[in-house]
Amino acid sequence: MAEKQRMQLSRLATGFLHDTDAAEDVVQESLLRLWLLRERIETAQDFSALAIRITKNVCISLWRQKQKQQTVSLEALNSLENSSQSTDIEDKECQQILQQALSELAPAERRIFQLWQQDLSIQEIATITGAQPRTVSSMLSLTRRKLYTKLKNRNTL
Q1: Distance in angstroms (rounded) separating the CA atoms of residues 101 and 146
Q2: Which end of the chain has the least Cβ crowding within 10 Å, N or C?
Q3: For the chain, what is the domain count?
Q4: pLDDT number for residue 152
Q5: Are residues 70 and 13 in the same domain?
Q6: What confidence score (pLDDT) does residue 135 get?
Protein backbone atom coordinates (compact mmCIF):
# COMPACT_ATOMS: atom_id res chain seq x y z
CA MET A 1 0.00 0.00 0.00
CA ALA A 2 1.36 3.35 -0.92
CA GLU A 3 2.26 5.74 1.85
CA LYS A 4 -0.12 8.27 0.30
CA GLN A 5 -3.09 5.95 0.79
CA ARG A 6 -2.02 5.13 4.34
CA MET A 7 -1.85 8.83 5.16
CA GLN A 8 -5.32 9.29 3.64
CA LEU A 9 -6.71 6.59 5.93
CA SER A 10 -4.89 8.11 8.89
CA ARG A 11 -6.36 11.56 8.19
CA LEU A 12 -9.83 10.05 7.83
CA ALA A 13 -9.56 8.23 11.15
CA THR A 14 -7.99 11.22 12.93
CA GLY A 15 -10.75 13.49 11.66
CA PHE A 16 -13.37 11.10 12.93
CA LEU A 17 -11.86 10.21 16.31
CA HIS A 18 -9.80 13.35 17.11
CA ASP A 19 -7.12 11.10 18.60
CA THR A 20 -3.96 10.27 16.68
CA ASP A 21 -3.16 7.13 18.71
CA ALA A 22 -6.65 5.72 18.25
CA ALA A 23 -6.51 6.68 14.58
CA GLU A 24 -3.30 4.73 14.13
CA ASP A 25 -4.93 1.70 15.76
CA VAL A 26 -7.87 2.06 13.36
CA VAL A 27 -5.55 2.22 10.36
CA GLN A 28 -3.73 -0.89 11.55
CA GLU A 29 -7.04 -2.72 12.02
CA SER A 30 -8.19 -1.59 8.56
CA LEU A 31 -4.96 -2.78 6.96
CA LEU A 32 -5.30 -6.14 8.66
CA ARG A 33 -8.83 -6.52 7.32
CA LEU A 34 -7.68 -5.46 3.85
CA TRP A 35 -4.91 -8.03 3.97
CA LEU A 36 -7.44 -10.74 4.73
CA LEU A 37 -9.49 -9.63 1.71
CA ARG A 38 -6.50 -9.16 -0.63
CA GLU A 39 -7.43 -12.04 -2.95
CA ARG A 40 -10.87 -10.56 -3.63
CA ILE A 41 -9.59 -7.09 -4.59
CA GLU A 42 -9.22 -6.76 -8.34
CA THR A 43 -8.20 -3.16 -9.04
CA ALA A 44 -6.53 -0.24 -7.29
CA GLN A 45 -9.85 1.62 -7.26
CA ASP A 46 -11.52 -1.30 -5.51
CA PHE A 47 -8.65 -1.33 -3.03
CA SER A 48 -8.91 2.38 -2.29
CA ALA A 49 -12.71 2.36 -1.96
CA LEU A 50 -12.65 -0.72 0.25
CA ALA A 51 -9.89 0.75 2.41
CA ILE A 52 -11.94 3.90 3.03
CA ARG A 53 -15.12 1.92 3.74
CA ILE A 54 -13.35 -0.40 6.19
CA THR A 55 -11.66 2.53 7.95
CA LYS A 56 -14.99 4.31 8.36
CA ASN A 57 -16.64 1.16 9.69
CA VAL A 58 -13.83 0.56 12.19
CA CYS A 59 -14.09 4.20 13.33
CA ILE A 60 -17.84 3.85 13.82
CA SER A 61 -17.40 0.60 15.77
CA LEU A 62 -14.80 2.20 18.01
CA TRP A 63 -17.01 5.25 18.55
CA ARG A 64 -19.96 3.00 19.51
CA GLN A 65 -17.80 1.10 21.99
CA LYS A 66 -16.71 4.37 23.60
CA GLN A 67 -20.33 5.51 23.83
CA LYS A 68 -21.30 2.28 25.60
CA GLN A 69 -18.36 2.62 27.98
CA GLN A 70 -19.26 6.22 28.78
CA THR A 71 -22.88 5.27 29.44
CA VAL A 72 -21.82 2.43 31.72
CA SER A 73 -19.25 4.67 33.42
CA LEU A 74 -21.83 7.39 34.06
CA GLU A 75 -24.30 4.88 35.46
CA ALA A 76 -21.61 3.37 37.67
CA LEU A 77 -20.49 6.82 38.81
CA ASN A 78 -24.04 7.79 39.74
CA SER A 79 -24.55 4.60 41.72
CA LEU A 80 -21.16 5.01 43.39
CA GLU A 81 -21.93 8.58 44.41
CA ASN A 82 -25.14 7.43 46.07
CA SER A 83 -23.53 4.61 48.01
CA SER A 84 -19.95 5.84 48.44
CA GLN A 85 -20.37 7.37 51.88
CA SER A 86 -21.91 4.29 53.47
CA THR A 87 -19.53 2.01 51.59
CA ASP A 88 -16.49 3.95 52.79
CA ILE A 89 -17.59 3.58 56.40
CA GLU A 90 -18.34 -0.13 55.94
CA ASP A 91 -14.98 -0.70 54.23
CA LYS A 92 -13.12 1.00 57.06
CA GLU A 93 -14.99 -1.06 59.64
CA CYS A 94 -14.26 -4.28 57.76
CA GLN A 95 -10.58 -3.37 57.46
CA GLN A 96 -10.39 -2.69 61.20
CA ILE A 97 -12.08 -6.00 62.02
CA LEU A 98 -9.78 -7.88 59.64
CA GLN A 99 -6.69 -6.21 61.11
CA GLN A 100 -7.89 -7.12 64.61
CA ALA A 101 -8.43 -10.74 63.57
CA LEU A 102 -4.99 -10.84 61.92
CA SER A 103 -3.35 -9.47 65.06
CA GLU A 104 -4.81 -12.36 67.05
CA LEU A 105 -3.05 -14.94 64.87
CA ALA A 106 0.29 -16.51 65.72
CA PRO A 107 3.23 -14.70 64.07
CA ALA A 108 3.99 -17.62 61.72
CA GLU A 109 0.33 -17.84 60.64
CA ARG A 110 0.16 -14.08 60.09
CA ARG A 111 3.35 -14.11 58.02
CA ILE A 112 2.18 -16.97 55.79
CA PHE A 113 -1.21 -15.31 55.31
CA GLN A 114 0.39 -11.98 54.40
CA LEU A 115 2.70 -13.67 51.89
CA TRP A 116 -0.30 -15.47 50.40
CA GLN A 117 -2.12 -12.13 50.09
CA GLN A 118 0.80 -10.90 47.98
CA ASP A 119 -0.12 -13.59 45.41
CA LEU A 120 2.89 -15.77 46.12
CA SER A 121 2.58 -19.47 45.39
CA ILE A 122 2.81 -22.14 48.08
CA GLN A 123 6.26 -23.07 46.76
CA GLU A 124 7.46 -19.46 46.94
CA ILE A 125 6.11 -19.08 50.47
CA ALA A 126 7.84 -22.34 51.44
CA THR A 127 11.12 -21.06 50.04
CA ILE A 128 10.81 -17.75 51.91
CA THR A 129 9.80 -19.30 55.24
CA GLY A 130 12.02 -22.38 55.01
CA ALA A 131 9.04 -24.67 55.62
CA GLN A 132 7.88 -27.61 53.54
CA PRO A 133 5.22 -26.84 50.91
CA ARG A 134 2.75 -29.24 52.60
CA THR A 135 3.29 -27.47 55.91
CA VAL A 136 2.70 -24.08 54.30
CA SER A 137 -0.45 -25.35 52.61
CA SER A 138 -1.79 -26.78 55.86
CA MET A 139 -0.97 -23.67 57.85
CA LEU A 140 -2.55 -21.44 55.22
CA SER A 141 -5.72 -23.51 55.21
CA LEU A 142 -5.88 -23.48 59.00
CA THR A 143 -5.22 -19.73 59.12
CA ARG A 144 -7.93 -18.98 56.59
CA ARG A 145 -10.39 -21.11 58.57
CA LYS A 146 -9.46 -19.29 61.79
CA LEU A 147 -9.96 -15.90 60.17
CA TYR A 148 -13.27 -16.98 58.67
CA THR A 149 -14.51 -18.20 62.04
CA LYS A 150 -13.39 -15.02 63.82
CA LEU A 151 -15.04 -12.79 61.25
CA LYS A 152 -18.18 -14.89 61.22
CA ASN A 153 -18.43 -14.72 65.03
CA ARG A 154 -18.28 -10.94 64.79
CA ASN A 155 -21.19 -11.00 62.30
CA THR A 156 -19.19 -9.32 59.55
CA LEU A 157 -19.85 -11.97 56.90
Answers
A1: 9
A2: C
A3: 2
A4: 78
A5: yes
A6: 92
